[in-house]
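> example.struct
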């Protein structure tokens, strides 16, 4: 099995968490490779403009798919490294409490709410008025923080070990993260922190409603399940015909038997059944000529 075959097999047979990580990594690698081509050709790299989520709603209207693509899009190595590590750690804990479908649902819906918070803030608050036309959002952070906050509300006392800190309960990790995101709105990464707050908000609401027996993300998971069925290739049925030596022998024997039956039947029509020999009667009986 080649390396590519191993990757395909791992993606196909792996968990939803594995697939989310693979998709993020694959998009990152492809984007960086294409960037090299643009660099060598001396052309500006404009592909990110068509995949990142623009703050300008007029730009968004011409590229609505960015509401989805942005949450799988990374360009800087450290950006994807930290997001993938957090997704892996938090995702494994999440799967200890919920099923794989809910992980994908929360990842996607958390990313959508992060994008909505980002768009709303940049188009409502005067502080962002001058930067709206040139601002873009990319990265899986909103989706990941949605998972973190969901865990904090479902299992607040679940403890994890953080380097240089030690054991920390999920509720304190989520609380400190949200406070830092609020403080960070006034920093150079205002859009990212606003998206984080959107993801955190949805993680809280999602689990709150789950505890009440309502899965608010069912529509999102249903939509993507339907899209998966639509674009899933239909299996091809191939019919082959093969003639073997056994087939030839069978056909030869059948034709020979039919000739014998025809001769016996012809004799009956001319001289009657009583004219048949004992052997001919046995042949006729054995081959179904007489019931």
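> example.seq
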């Amino acid at each position: 099995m080649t390396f590519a075959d191993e990757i395909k097999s791992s993606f196909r047979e792996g968990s939803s968490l594995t697939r989310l990580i693979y998709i993020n990594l694959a998009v990152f690698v492809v984007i960086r490779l294409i960037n090299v081509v643009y660099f060598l050709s001396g052309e500006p790299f404009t592909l990110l403009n068509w995949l990142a989520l623009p703050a300008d709603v007029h730009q968004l209207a011409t590229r609505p798919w960015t509401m989805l693509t942005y949450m799988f899009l990374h360009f800087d190595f450290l950006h994807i490294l930290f997001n993938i590590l957090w997704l892996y750690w938090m995702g494994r804990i999440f799967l200890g409490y919920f099923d794989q479908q809910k992980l994908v649902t929360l990842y996607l819906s958390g990313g959508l709410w992060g994008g909505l918070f980002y768009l709303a803030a940049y188009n409502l608050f005067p502080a962002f008025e001058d930067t709206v036309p040139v601002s873009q959002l990319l990265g899986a952070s909103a989706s990941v923080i949605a998972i973190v906050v969901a865990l904090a509300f479902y299992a607040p006392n679940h403890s994890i070990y953080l380097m240089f800190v030690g054991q920390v309960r999920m509720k304190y990790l989520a609380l400190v993260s949200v406070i830092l995101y609020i403080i960070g709105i006034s920093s150079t990464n205002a859009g990212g922190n606003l998206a984080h707050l959107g993801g955190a908000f949805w993680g809280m609401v999602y689990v709150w409603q789950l505890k009440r027996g309502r899965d608010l993300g069912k529509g999102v998971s249903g939509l993507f399940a339907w899209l998966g069925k639509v674009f899933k290739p239909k299996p091809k049925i191939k019919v082959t015909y093969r003639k073997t030596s056994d087939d030839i022998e069978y056909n030869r024997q059948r034709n020979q038997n039919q000739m014998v039956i025809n001769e016996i039947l012809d004799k009956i029509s001319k001289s009657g059944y009583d004219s048949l020999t004992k052997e001919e009667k046995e042949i006729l009986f054995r081959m179904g000529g007489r019931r």
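> remarks
The mean pLDDT is 85.
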